[in-house]
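Dear colleagues,

As part of the handover before I leave the project, I'm documenting each prediction I ran so the next person doesn't have to rerun anything. This entry is a single chain, and its sequence is reproduced below.
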Amino acid sequence: MDSRIWESVDHLVAWLDEHSTQSPQEERLLRLLKLSEEVGEVGAAVIGATGQNPRKGVTHTWEDVQYELCDVVFSALVALRTLTPDAARVFAERLAYVEQRSAASRDTTGREAAKDANDTPEAEGTEQTVAAPEAR
């Protein structure tokens, strides 16, 4: 992740800490709860963008949804940085884990699909061939 993002997160955390009237434990909990608030705003923006509330109609755009999603990301990064001064390392490690897990899942899914295609009784011990659609 761009180091500029973490610099901004550090500035936000410092600014929030400077203006906090809560104990550190309460502040930590409130920053975690802030995520729920922001996710709710994403939901409200989606409902507004799709006009799902007949009383209100279309009240938001998909651009509004994008901005609300960014607010979720900012809040999550601030919460993570509040929990640990080593947030950038924790984030990078978790991202690498998720990338590795998803790559392994893609590899496994591809192998399973190929294995399933070759596991028919008539294909055991031989190469399976597929007839052209018109010859079936």
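The radius of gyration is 24 Å. Residues 38 and 70 are 9 Å apart (CA to CA).

All the best with the project,
I.
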